[in-house]
Protein backbone atom coordinates (compact mmCIF):
# COMPACT_ATOMS: atom_id res chain seq x y z
CA UNK A 1 0.00 0.00 0.00
CA UNK A 2 2.84 2.41 0.76
CA UNK A 3 4.40 1.78 -2.65
CA UNK A 4 1.13 2.46 -4.45
CA UNK A 5 0.30 5.68 -2.61
CA UNK A 6 2.58 8.07 -4.51
CA UNK A 7 1.50 6.60 -7.85
CA UNK A 8 -2.17 7.03 -7.01
CA UNK A 9 -1.57 10.59 -5.81
CA UNK A 10 0.31 11.49 -8.98
CA UNK A 11 -2.51 9.99 -11.02
CA UNK A 12 -5.07 12.21 -9.30
CA UNK A 13 -2.92 15.30 -9.92
CA UNK A 14 -2.62 14.38 -13.59
CA UNK A 15 -6.38 13.97 -13.91
CA UNK A 16 -7.06 17.28 -12.19
CA UNK A 17 -4.55 19.07 -14.44
CA UNK A 18 -6.15 17.50 -17.52
CA UNK A 19 -9.61 18.72 -16.52
CA UNK A 20 -8.38 22.24 -15.72
CA UNK A 21 -6.72 22.47 -19.15
CA UNK A 22 -9.85 21.26 -20.91
CA UNK A 23 -12.04 23.75 -19.03
CA UNK A 24 -9.61 26.58 -19.71
CA UNK A 25 -9.29 25.80 -23.42
CA UNK A 26 -12.34 27.99 -24.16
CA UNK A 27 -13.52 31.14 -22.40
CA UNK A 28 -17.05 29.68 -22.39
CA UNK A 29 -15.82 26.64 -20.47
CA UNK A 30 -16.96 23.09 -21.16
CA UNK A 31 -19.98 20.91 -20.37
CA UNK A 32 -19.57 17.79 -18.29
CA UNK A 33 -20.23 15.51 -21.28
CA UNK A 34 -17.35 16.99 -23.26
CA UNK A 35 -15.01 16.77 -20.28
CA UNK A 36 -15.86 13.08 -19.89
CA UNK A 37 -15.33 12.42 -23.59
CA UNK A 38 -12.07 14.35 -23.98
CA UNK A 39 -10.48 13.40 -20.66
CA UNK A 40 -11.02 9.68 -21.14
CA UNK A 41 -12.22 9.41 -17.53
CA UNK A 42 -15.46 7.87 -16.31
CA UNK A 43 -18.39 10.16 -15.65
CA UNK A 44 -18.42 9.48 -11.87
CA UNK A 45 -14.69 10.28 -11.66
CA UNK A 46 -15.12 13.51 -13.63
CA UNK A 47 -18.09 14.56 -11.53
CA UNK A 48 -16.21 13.87 -8.29
CA UNK A 49 -13.15 15.83 -9.39
CA UNK A 50 -15.18 18.75 -10.74
CA UNK A 51 -17.16 19.00 -7.52
CA UNK A 52 -13.95 18.98 -5.45
CA UNK A 53 -12.37 21.67 -7.64
CA UNK A 54 -15.50 23.80 -7.36
CA UNK A 55 -15.48 23.44 -3.56
CA UNK A 56 -11.94 24.90 -3.57
CA UNK A 57 -12.94 27.79 -5.83
CA UNK A 58 -10.82 26.56 -8.73
CA UNK A 59 -13.88 25.94 -10.90
CA UNK A 60 -17.38 27.36 -11.13
CA UNK A 61 -20.45 26.17 -13.00
CA UNK A 62 -22.09 28.76 -15.20
CA UNK A 63 -25.74 28.93 -14.05
CA UNK A 64 -26.89 29.93 -17.55
CA UNK A 65 -25.14 27.31 -19.70
CA UNK A 66 -24.22 24.66 -17.15
CA UNK A 67 -20.65 24.74 -18.44
CA UNK A 68 -17.73 24.41 -16.08
CA UNK A 69 -15.53 27.54 -16.10
CA UNK A 70 -12.36 28.58 -14.29
CA UNK A 71 -13.01 29.97 -10.81
CA UNK A 72 -11.74 32.97 -8.88
CA UNK A 73 -8.99 31.00 -7.16
CA UNK A 74 -7.46 30.33 -10.57
CA UNK A 75 -7.26 34.08 -11.12
CA UNK A 76 -5.60 34.55 -7.73
CA UNK A 77 -3.05 31.83 -8.46
CA UNK A 78 -2.44 33.17 -11.96
CA UNK A 79 -1.87 36.67 -10.64
CA UNK A 80 0.69 35.38 -8.15
CA UNK A 81 2.47 33.35 -10.83
CA UNK A 82 2.59 36.35 -13.18
CA UNK A 83 5.30 37.91 -11.02
CA UNK A 84 7.62 35.01 -11.92
CA UNK A 85 6.79 35.14 -15.63
CA UNK A 86 6.67 38.80 -16.71
CA UNK A 87 5.60 38.05 -20.27
CA UNK A 88 3.74 41.36 -20.48
CA UNK A 89 6.97 43.33 -20.11
CA UNK A 90 8.89 40.90 -22.29
CA UNK A 91 6.60 40.48 -25.28
CA UNK A 92 3.74 43.01 -25.16
CA UNK A 93 5.71 45.86 -26.82
CA UNK A 94 6.59 43.56 -29.72
CA UNK A 95 2.98 42.43 -30.14
CA UNK A 96 1.79 46.01 -30.22
CA UNK A 97 4.30 46.90 -32.94
CA UNK A 98 3.34 43.83 -34.95
CA UNK A 99 -0.38 44.59 -34.70
CA UNK A 100 0.11 48.26 -35.56
CA UNK A 101 2.42 47.68 -38.53
CA UNK A 102 0.56 44.71 -40.01
CA UNK A 103 -3.05 45.36 -39.04
CA UNK A 104 -3.32 41.67 -38.06
CA UNK A 105 -3.80 40.05 -34.65
CA UNK A 106 -0.46 39.30 -32.98
CA UNK A 107 0.27 36.55 -30.45
CA UNK A 108 2.99 35.32 -28.11
CA UNK A 109 3.11 31.57 -27.49
CA UNK A 110 5.57 29.58 -25.39
CA UNK A 111 6.69 26.00 -25.60
CA UNK A 112 5.56 23.71 -22.81
CA UNK A 113 6.86 20.20 -23.40
CA UNK A 114 5.24 18.86 -26.56
CA UNK A 115 2.85 21.81 -26.91
CA UNK A 116 2.65 25.51 -27.52
CA UNK A 117 0.47 27.62 -25.24
CA UNK A 118 -0.73 31.06 -26.31
CA UNK A 119 -0.19 33.58 -23.51
CA UNK A 120 -0.70 37.04 -25.03
CA UNK A 121 -2.79 38.58 -27.80
CA UNK A 122 -2.87 42.02 -29.38
CA UNK A 123 -5.66 42.83 -31.81
CA UNK A 124 -4.87 44.52 -35.11
CA UNK A 125 -6.83 47.23 -36.86
CA UNK A 126 -8.08 45.12 -39.78
CA UNK A 127 -11.81 44.57 -39.09
CA UNK A 128 -12.00 40.94 -40.28
CA UNK A 129 -10.16 38.56 -37.95
CA UNK A 130 -9.41 34.91 -37.39
CA UNK A 131 -10.50 33.52 -34.03
CA UNK A 132 -8.52 30.27 -34.11
CA UNK A 133 -5.97 31.52 -31.58
CA UNK A 134 -6.39 33.25 -28.21
CA UNK A 135 -4.92 33.15 -24.73
CA UNK A 136 -4.86 29.65 -23.29
CA UNK A 137 -5.13 27.79 -26.60
CA UNK A 138 -2.74 24.85 -26.92
CA UNK A 139 -1.46 23.13 -30.04
CA UNK A 140 0.95 20.22 -30.47
CA UNK A 141 4.41 21.33 -31.60
CA UNK A 142 4.42 21.48 -35.39
CA UNK A 143 0.76 22.51 -35.58
CA UNK A 144 -0.12 26.14 -36.41
CA UNK A 145 2.47 28.82 -37.17
CA UNK A 146 3.99 29.20 -33.69
CA UNK A 147 4.44 25.47 -33.21
CA UNK A 148 5.95 25.10 -36.66
CA UNK A 149 8.43 27.93 -36.04
CA UNK A 150 9.57 26.33 -32.77
CA UNK A 151 9.77 22.73 -34.02
CA UNK A 152 11.75 23.80 -37.09
CA UNK A 153 14.67 24.97 -34.98
CA UNK A 154 14.80 22.22 -32.36
CA UNK A 155 17.86 19.93 -32.50
CA UNK A 156 17.36 17.19 -35.12
CA UNK A 157 17.19 14.39 -32.57
CA UNK A 158 14.52 16.13 -30.51
CA UNK A 159 12.49 17.19 -33.54
CA UNK A 160 12.63 13.71 -35.05
CA UNK A 161 11.24 12.33 -31.81
CA UNK A 162 7.97 14.14 -32.54
CA UNK A 163 7.95 13.44 -36.27
CA UNK A 164 8.63 9.72 -35.88
CA UNK A 165 5.37 9.34 -33.94
CA UNK A 166 3.58 12.15 -35.71
CA UNK A 167 0.01 10.84 -35.78
CA UNK A 168 0.08 10.08 -32.08
CA UNK A 169 1.68 13.45 -31.32
CA UNK A 170 -0.63 15.56 -33.51
CA UNK A 171 -3.80 13.76 -32.48
CA UNK A 172 -6.91 15.29 -34.04
CA UNK A 173 -4.74 17.69 -36.05
CA UNK A 174 -2.93 14.88 -37.90
CA UNK A 175 -5.56 14.72 -40.65
CA UNK A 176 -4.94 18.31 -41.73
CA UNK A 177 -1.26 18.22 -40.86
CA UNK A 178 0.09 15.07 -42.47
CA UNK A 179 3.67 14.11 -41.66
CA UNK A 180 4.72 14.85 -45.25
CA UNK A 181 3.12 18.30 -45.14
CA UNK A 182 4.70 19.13 -41.79
CA UNK A 183 8.17 18.00 -42.86
CA UNK A 184 7.90 20.23 -45.93
CA UNK A 185 6.73 23.17 -43.83
CA UNK A 186 9.61 22.71 -41.40
CA UNK A 187 12.17 22.75 -44.20
CA UNK A 188 10.61 25.88 -45.72
CA UNK A 189 10.62 27.55 -42.30
CA UNK A 190 14.34 26.88 -41.87
CA UNK A 191 15.07 28.37 -45.30
CA UNK A 192 12.93 31.50 -44.83
CA UNK A 193 13.39 32.02 -41.09
CA UNK A 194 9.63 32.19 -40.47
CA UNK A 195 6.71 29.78 -40.78
CA UNK A 196 3.55 30.02 -42.86
CA UNK A 197 0.40 28.09 -41.95
CA UNK A 198 -1.85 28.06 -45.05
CA UNK A 199 -5.17 27.44 -43.33
CA UNK A 200 -4.34 23.96 -42.05
CA UNK A 201 -5.99 24.42 -38.65
CA UNK A 202 -9.09 26.12 -40.09
CA UNK A 203 -9.71 26.69 -43.77
CA UNK A 204 -9.30 30.35 -44.71
CA UNK A 205 -7.49 31.21 -41.47
CA UNK A 206 -3.79 31.77 -42.15
CA UNK A 207 -0.89 32.41 -39.82
CA UNK A 208 2.81 33.19 -39.80
CA UNK A 209 5.31 32.84 -36.97
CA UNK A 210 8.94 33.36 -35.95
CA UNK A 211 10.79 31.59 -33.14
CA UNK A 212 12.15 33.24 -30.01
CA UNK A 213 15.41 31.77 -28.68
CA UNK A 214 16.78 31.55 -25.14
CA UNK A 215 20.42 32.40 -24.30
CA UNK A 216 21.43 28.83 -25.18
CA UNK A 217 20.00 29.10 -28.69
CA UNK A 218 16.97 26.90 -28.00
CA UNK A 219 13.58 27.92 -29.44
CA UNK A 220 11.37 28.53 -26.40
CA UNK A 221 8.58 30.70 -27.77
CA UNK A 222 7.23 32.34 -30.91
CA UNK A 223 5.52 35.49 -32.09
CA UNK A 224 2.82 35.01 -34.70
CA UNK A 225 0.23 36.79 -36.79
CA UNK A 226 -3.14 35.38 -37.83
CA UNK A 227 -5.82 36.56 -40.21
CA UNK A 228 -7.83 35.70 -43.27
CA UNK A 229 -6.21 34.23 -46.39
CA UNK A 230 -6.28 37.37 -48.62
CA UNK A 231 -4.13 39.19 -46.03
CA UNK A 232 -1.39 36.54 -46.30
CA UNK A 233 -0.90 36.26 -50.03
CA UNK A 234 2.66 35.64 -51.31
CA UNK A 235 3.32 39.28 -52.18
CA UNK A 236 2.75 40.27 -48.53
CA UNK A 237 4.40 37.34 -46.78
CA UNK A 238 7.94 38.70 -47.09
CA UNK A 239 6.89 41.95 -45.39
CA UNK A 240 5.10 40.14 -42.56
CA UNK A 241 7.94 37.65 -42.17
CA UNK A 242 10.45 40.46 -41.77
CA UNK A 243 8.30 42.11 -39.08
CA UNK A 244 8.00 38.81 -37.20
CA UNK A 245 11.71 38.03 -37.31
CA UNK A 246 12.62 41.54 -36.14
CA UNK A 247 10.35 41.30 -33.11
CA UNK A 248 11.37 37.71 -32.34
CA UNK A 249 14.98 38.89 -32.37
CA UNK A 250 14.15 41.75 -29.99
CA UNK A 251 12.56 39.38 -27.50
CA UNK A 252 15.42 36.89 -27.83
CA UNK A 253 17.87 39.68 -27.11
CA UNK A 254 15.97 40.67 -23.97
CA UNK A 255 16.04 37.06 -22.82
CA UNK A 256 19.79 36.93 -23.39
CA UNK A 257 20.28 40.10 -21.36
CA UNK A 258 18.04 38.78 -18.60
CA UNK A 259 15.54 41.64 -18.90
CA UNK A 260 11.80 41.24 -18.75
Could you describe the 3D structure shown?
This protein is of the alpha+beta class. It has two domains: 4-80, Orthogonal Bundle (Arc Repressor Mutant, subunit A), CATH 1.10.10; 85-257, GAF domain (Beta-Lactamase, 2-Layer Sandwich), CATH 3.30.450. It is built from ten helices and eight strands. The strands form two sheets. Strands 5-4-3-8-7-6 form a six-stranded antiparallel sheet. A two-stranded antiparallel ribbon has the order 1-2. Helix 5 packs antiparallel against helix 10 (234-257) and helix 6 (144-152) packs across helix 9 (179-192).
| Number of continuous helical runs | 10
Number of strands: 8
Largest sheet: 6 strands, antiparallel
What's the level 1 CATH class of the largest domain? Alpha Beta
List the domain count as a whole number: 2
Mean pLDDT: 89
Rough outline: globular
Q: Report strand %.
A: 15-25%
CATH architecture of the largest domain: 2-Layer Sandwich
CATH domain fold name of the largest domain: Beta-Lactamase
- What is the percent of helical residues? 40-55%
Strand order of the largest sheet: 5-4-3-8-7-6
CATH superfamily of the largest domain: GAF domain
Low-confidence stretches: 1-7
Q: Rg to the nearest angstrom?
A: 19 Å
Distance between the termini: 47 Å
Protein name: IclR family transcriptional regulator
Organism: Sinomonas halotolerans
Pfam family, one: HTH_IclR
Domain HTH iclR-type: 10-72
